[in-house]
Amino acid sequence: MPMLASRMTRARQTFAFRRVNPPSLRFGNTPRNAKRAPRGKRTRRNWHAGPPIIWNVTPGRDWRDAAPRSRLFRMTTAPQAIALGRGGRNAPGIPLHLLTRHALVTGQTGTGKTVTLLSVAEQLSRAGVPLLLPDVKGDLSAIARSVPGVTRLDVMSGAAQIPLWDFGADLLGRAMELSEPQAATLEIVFAWADDTGAPLDTLADLRAALARVLGQRDAVSRHYGYVSQVSLGVVQRGVLRLERAGAAPIFGPARLDIAALVDQPGRVTLLDATRLFQSPRLYGAVMLRLLRELWRRFPERGDAARPRFALAIDEAHALFAEAGPALLRQTEQTARLIRSKGVALILASQMESDVPAIVAEQCASRIRHDRALGIGRAELVTLDRASGRATAPEIVCPVMPDCGTAPCDAVPAMTLAPASRPADPAAPISAEPWRDAGAVLAALLFVAAPIVAVALIVWGGGGAFLFGVLLALGLVFLFNPPRPGG
């Protein structure tokens, strides 16, 4: 009897762990059955041919999170919210379709703000949202451990240049730390260069333009307003400061096209800002210029299931330190208008007071870290996913993202983005060209399938078989369209 009981027990365990689900439609690498495995691991059989695969499972995380996903599976199971705690789909977080109302992350050093930023960035990438993430202190590069295909941009190396005239006199004057009268002189120089056709792509071009305006100061004053020799000298010294700070490689012919950052869903672009942030005002000018280009080039989209693009700006206080009322109003207007273009803006700073109230009002979601709450805990205020109203403050514990637990040797080599051709700053961006191409191919196949099938049936061919093949190809291109780079 004991031997029979032990055999029955083993049979029940085998049946419980090796039970095969009934055949059903599966996408990608969904599991068919699971069986027992060594402690700390689980094993599952893939529906593809081959031996069972053993996956390492992080404690507290579902084993399905470690399984590879096909692109179609990721599209059909995309997260509906940016989770900021445990609990799967019921975890507290920010609804994905409301992230275009922008978010503000605050917290002192060591309270968990970087973990929150990495977690948000990782989940946005998995949801298929392209992201631009400036890395000020060098700690955000850990995102490359868990997100494949991370691209690094280093504007200080000259690999991704921006034309100087595209900054405008206001942002460039802020980078040079000019006063309002001195910035007005710089604006006159910009207007003179625009009328005369003088190039303003580099700092050397600006230095040459200042010298010519100084030589023609009387004529320029008659046409554009009074130009002080003292103000011109101050602007020249501002150019010298930028050159001595190593900022000359930033300015050049337009080689950084913002459209290249959104050519793949889920693409993460790290902006190496460790050297750029040594001049906080220059860092703020570069970030504000990128924000303006997003507003200028992205078409209107309206509400959607997920953002089209996300821009996370760490150390956001550098954007607004000693900023004038005109610049604050323009920044607030830009943040408000890019909502309808599907752009999510995530600002991060140490204190909420670092961000002016006129700009902070545009951030519907707030994640506040504080030492009083404890390390790794934060207070979340966001919008309800059903009604869209503000929720009550809730204490959340953001989970350490996968990039925070991966070994250091798992960091892939990151390369500079190729500078292919000068960008046209006036050209609108089609933010999802791969989806447009897939829809066109699917429509052509759907139209061609019945026509070819009927023709082959009339002529005595295998029309039904070819109809099925073309219909299947149409479904593939519709739900899993081709994308650049894979």
UniProtKB/TrEMBL annotation:
Keyword annotations of the record: Membrane, Transmembrane, Transmembrane helix
Domain Helicase HerA-like C-terminal: 94-164, 166-370
Classification via Gene3D superfamilies: P-loop containing nucleotide triphosphate hydrolases
Segments passing through the bilayer: 439-458, 464-480
KW Transmembrane helix (keyword) present: yes
Coiled coil: none
Pfam families linked to this entry: HerA_C
Basic residues composition-biased segments: 33-47
InterPro entries, alphabetized: HerA_C, P-loop_NTPase, T4SS_component
SUPFAM superfamilies: P-loop containing nucleoside triphosphate hydrolases
Annotated segments matching region Disordered: 19-51
Name of this chain's protein: DUF853 family protein
Organism: Gemmobacter lutimaris
